[in-house]
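Journal club prep — side note

Before the paper discussion, L.F. wants everyone to see what a predicted structure for a comparable chain looks like in token form. Sequence:
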Amino acid sequence: MASTAEIKSRIASVKQTQKITNAMYLIASTKLRKARSDLDNTRPYFEALRSEIKRIFRTAGDVDSPYFYPPGDEPELEGPYGCLVITADKGLAGAYNQNVIKEVRRLLEEHPDTRLFVVGEYGRRFFTQHRIPIERSFLYTAQNPTLDRAREISSILLERYDRGELRKIYVVYTDLGNGIEMATRTTRLLPFHRTHFDSPLCEHKGKKQFEFAPSVSAVLNGVMHSYLTGFIYSTLIDSFCSEQNARMTAMDSANQNAEELLSVLSLQFNRLRQANITQEITEITAGARSQKKTHGKGVQAQ
């Protein structure tokens, strides 16, 4: 059985660990608030881009673009796929990274000729250790996503797509959703389906027709570049928010477990200390009784 000194040392160790987990919880909550604020500040611009794409389809519904399936059709596209994988740089975030890896492996089983474009040190390390080829690894941190990084990723993926090296492009990321429950999602980036930008017919009434220069297709393709950048940026932000939310949950669970462990250790310490005190009192009482008996025998002998 552990001594009081050993239990006391373990209690001190648990308290030190609890300080670390509590600090990580506070840091994650601060990063989460900042990331949400950044996303809210940029969302109106990309919502406006989405509205403009809707307007283009309202004006010229038969417009042709390599970034969209033909109207009313979704043919099977043969050839290599691309997959943007967004993970964290480190663990201590529950099942956040494992869920993303699991979804990527499922995609690889369905389409083995999928080329991976990886964001995050955790994903790079996992695929390297398991000898899964990586087409491109973005070597900047997954922390604090920026539009410049999203623009770089978008340009690289679009270049491969425009050259025909990738027939489809997916992104695997974690969506924070309503801010409570997280979900790992596999979303097709390219090509888009036109229904993705459909709007009710009532919105079309009374709308002014527009002229596009040099052509409708050129304008649509130009807007799609910006829209894709915004889409990737939102997935980076959503993943970062989900990572911080998962870390907050993990650290909160660690704090609760530490409290339970401290309660158990404190109870063990108090019981053991009380047992030691009782044993000392018993020994003192037995010694005093023995001395009394010895003294009594000495008196009788005299």
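L.F.'s comment for the group: Residues 29-250 form a domain with the Pyruvate Kinase; Chain: A, domain 1 fold (CATH 3.40.1380.10). Keep this in mind when we get to the figures.
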